[in-house]
TrEMBL record:
GO molecular function, a single term: heme binding
Protein name: Cytochrome P450
UniProt xrefs under SUPFAM superfamilies: Cytochrome P450
Transmembrane intervals: none
Organism encoding this protein: Nonomuraea zeae
PANTHER family: BIOTIN BIOSYNTHESIS CYTOCHROME P450, P450, PUTATIVE (EUROFUNG)-RELATED
Family: Belongs to the cytochrome P450 family.
One GO-annotated biological process of the protein: cholesterol catabolic process
Superkingdom to which the source organism belongs: Bacteria
InterPro entries: Cyt_P450 (IPR001128), Cyt_P450_B (IPR002397), Cyt_P450_sf (IPR036396)
UniProt entry keywords in alphabetical sequence: Heme, Iron, Metal-binding, Monooxygenase, Oxidoreductase
Keyword Phosphoprotein assigned: no
Amino acid sequence: MAEMSAPPHINLVDPALYSHGDPFAQWRWLREHAPVHWQPPAELPGFWSLTRYDDVRAAYRDAETFSSARGILLRPAEHGADPGGGRTLALTDPPRHRRLRALVDEWFAVRSIRALEPEMRDITRGVVDRALERGSVDFVADVAARVPLYVICQMMGVPEPDWEHLYELTSQAFAAGDPLTRRFAHLEILGYFEALQADKAANPADDLVSVLATAEVDGERLSPDDVILNCDNLLVGGTENTRIAAAGGMLTFLEHPDQWQALAGDAGLLPSAVEEVLRWTSTATHIMRTAVRPVEIHGQAVEPGDKVVFWLPSANRDERVFDDPDAFDIRRRPNRHLALGFGEHFCLGSVLARVELRLLYGELLDRSVRVEPDGEAKLLDSIVVNGPERLPVLLKADR
Ligand code: HEM
């Protein structure tokens, strides 16, 4: 039997762990010694932690047992139920989930995203041009955040003059700092979609908000509130993780210049580099489910109503699955990471996110843009998403 190393103090729900600590030390210990670990209730309700790849994947596969409708993120009990529960794509269970998803799936399919690629390339070029003009920029706010936001705005049919306004609102809504500012910005986003969905319901066009505003599920139109919440799900889903993954990937390349050089020398490595950026950054830190029937995992009895949390960065560094998991290797193959989830709720924007990352790094490399650190990166203080909040860099191009 393997000797038991001294257990670290396990507390994965301290936001400072992700900005200043080392969650990997805790995850490594849990994978080895307590793969199904009970965290007692404190400010957050009690929950089971799953940290091994195979366990996370098996639970992901079993949407009948592990429900999304009671929320997919840990939240304090006094905040009550998530308002999107049973209504948004991310927070519904089958069979309704399949019907909702069928409304929008086609928009995110490989063929549709391929058709959008020329416009996405123009958007990316424009963002990089503006950043180069300034030279000294925050890679998060000035580069990584803008590309996915403009792209999802385009797909949703947000008029172009409003993109900048939504950029400001999402920046405030996702920013660390004052929770009230965040809350107000989020309410303003919901208010924006209230007006947009009413407009699209009356004058439908060829865009995602029109699809939602005119769609029927089970013979009934979605209520305006359901349309608004799903728009919010698309906007947040479409921007937050991609922004952090793109910036987290850049930070990782700055720390591993040999990997950036290898990529500069062989553009054919871009697809596997993007997969490795996704695995390595694993920006969605935790995803939660609620058990709706009893189930036993590694001898632990999980009861109906119990919360079960999947720690995706841990699964993506599982030494049982990945060779040399703590090495950042853009040539890694196979690379079946879980950064985009798995199964029933597998990321709707997976194709889009991959193309956005490929276009952004491709643009920087094609133009031989030199990216240099220009101050200290700041990591997010959050248990929901992890990665850079600020990444000051100098950008210089020869062409
Ligand atoms: C690097 C970028 C991204 C990462 C790491 C990421 C991660 C994830 C993960 C882990 C899930 C699964 C949630 C669960 O299991 O409950 C998910 C679902 C989802 N993602 Fe992404 N995502 C990214 C980009 C995008 C983009 C560009 C969109 C565009 C709209 C998007 C929209 C969604 C939506 C709507 C869902 C819910 C799907 C469902 O429940 O059926 N995501 N994403």
